[in-house]
TrEMBL record, chains A, B, C, D:
Residue stretches making up the HTH tetR-type domain: 19-79
Origin superkingdom: Bacteria
Protein's name in the database: TetR/AcrR family transcriptional regulator
Keyword entries, A-Z: DNA-binding, Transcription, Transcription regulation
Transmembrane feature ranges: none
Length: 209, 209, 209, 209
DNA sequence: AATGAATGAGGATTCATTCAT
DNA sequence: AATGAATGAATCCTCATTCAT
């Protein structure tokens, strides 16, 4: 299977192998995280899931928390990428309500497709990794804030407005997915859209206020 | 094997005593939870905090998770009571914006005064107690929904509207407290109020729609 | 086997039991120390030797090093007691050479009878317990110094003289026991005696110098 | 199974290279031993210090203990050489007390300049290397014994006398360096000299006895 | 009812050693 | 000869739970 290099590897495929191993471990960590939850994600289980020996983990990560931290980072990055794509696909919409509806729908869908991951990120606490989750949130924030600031007038409260909008969409979408109400999906989307549209209309056209 | 108690228990109001003990243990659990976080909340520490022996915990709770579950329940109940009072105090407000602003402010304040508790409830996961947090949320929901349904016309989507409103206020208030944005408190309150008022206006007076 | 106390132990025999357990653990630690050496003295082995479970060690000692520290202390104390008795038995001797010879012999004998223990104390390093061994030495020092200062005039160098004497006897005795030379025991004792007697004679009677 | 080396090894002076490598490893071992102490002297750290891979150690040493054993041997040899030079420089002295004083001083100085090494040899136990330290001692013994036997009459107890003298000087010097008493250096040297001179005088001139 | 000592499985981490390349 | 990744046993310690008293 391996290349039959006669010379002692001048092009260091070890770099490659190492990265593959890290990937494998992170995948295993992710798997264990979803399957057992944060506190049951022991080094033993992760090693087993990665098909390696427990000691080998420490060749690639200094300790368990760093490892799990990177797992969570990867989760977050994936989710962010997914969301990013969703937003981009809906920015070009026509009327304001349509654009908003599209984005809300896209966000909910993105979350629904990653419910397990969302649950880990939002319900399984990395004990002292408040930071990490905050980081994740802030990264989504940035993304959405950037997208929204285009629509807003540069008024003094632009930050506050962006914060309200971003937190509202995100929280509602997450609430809808992680803690589903007994409400039709379409109705939910429609109401969220109305909520945001009304607010946005006010903020986009200050005179109406 | 049976207990070798000589005296037939003097008619002590054991029912009473038992309840007092449960209270004491739950208080200890709460204390430990706040002081050490969920995973460091060991039975030993809780027993010590309650001034009893670890074995005695099992006289009152079948295992650690049930115990901590009830602790979390009590936290939630306390918080709910606190919020309930806040709402009640602000329902009688005059104009719609004033009433909304009052409630938003009350909610944020209530959360701020219980930030530690909130952090435990929202950032420290009871490992498989997804249920529990959902329960907590739902109970707050009920409360607020009840309060809000009074304002809403009995249209088909009343539930959806209530859900949106409740989730929005609560999530925004929690976000503001647990993950404070760089936004003035007054600005935040004002924007949240605007968001909700605009939406409520639409929903309260269907004709405008 | 156990006492059939009907009342919940007003005279706390637990105190007693606890002390017995500590003794048992320390004995086990000593045993393991002699049998396997310091670095192989693992908590597991000690627990096994004590016939208890590893976790139980921590009911009585905060960690392994404290436990082993106390084991070493006990060794040292035993040895010191042994030596103390030996000295006392020989202090009443008649002529100076006889008294010295008696003490040298007593010390060597005491060490010979505790060679294993001596080996642990002098050849098995408690990694950071330099302190501990120094303590042990100093305690023997005190003992011997006290004994010797009686013979010395209160000259300025009394300390130096006592130090030389004590270190010399002790080190020679230990060297003889731990690292036996190819020299007759009697000859060794005789030479050590001569060494010390000559020096003492000089120091006890300054005029001769 | 056999090594698949294509070229017949170019006639490299492998013998030479091998010896150089062994030296490098032993130096690394010494360095690690001084820096981290015996139990922290892991193969990994030694390999790192030698700038080679852990696996390569096993090309030159069958296992860790042999490696460290040789490290200790080298330490001892170096120390012995140092001491040897010190003795030689002081043997030509005039009067007996002067010669003795010179040697005592030289020994203490030599030990002081190698206190770290001394500490490893005397306080850090090679777990079962009782042997090794004894070896070291015996080699110093030989040296000093040889030097001293010149002064001694060939009586039956020459060995015992030499043993007493050597052990006494060495132990006192080591005690002084590793476990410094609260005694002036000069006083200490003077007393040690007196101790030895008195004894030597007796033994060198049997008639006085 | 209460105790609290005892348990023992489980967890994170280290490290001497091996082996495919 | 050299590498260094992989191993896996061993180590220390924690903690939920039980049980004799």
């Amino acid at each position: 299977m391996a290349a039959r290099t006669r010379r002692p590897m001048r092009r260091e495929p070890s770099q490659e192998r190492s990265r593959a191993m890290v990937r494998r471990i992170l995948d295993a960590g992710y798997e264990v995280l979803l399957a057992h939850g944060y506190d049951r994600a022991s080094t033993g289980r992760i090693a087993a899931a990665a098909g390696i020996s427990p000691g080998s983990l420490y060749q690639y990560f200094p300790d368990k928390h760093v490892l799990l931290g990177e797992v969570v980072d990867r989760c977050a990055d994936r989710l962010r990428a997914r969301i990013s794509r969703a937003f981009v696909a809906n920015l070009a919409g026509g009327s304001l309500p349509d654009a908003v509806r599209g984005n809300v729908l896209a966000l909910i869908t993105a979350f629904e497709e990653n419910a397990g991951l969302l649950r880990v990120l939002y319900e399984q606490l990395p004990p002292n990794a408040d930071t990490r989750r905050a980081d994740f949130k802030h990264r989504i924030d940035e993304l959405a804030t950037t997208a929204l600031l285009g629509y807003l007038p540069g008024g003094a409260r632009a930050d506050a407005v962006a914060w309200v909008l971003v937190r509202t969409v995100e929280n509602l979408a997450i609430s809808y997915v992680l803690d589903p109400p007994e409400v039709d999906r379409e109705d939910a989307v429609e109401e969220i859209t109305a909520l945001l549209t009304g607010y946005l209309a006010t903020r986009l056209d200050p005179e109406r206020r």
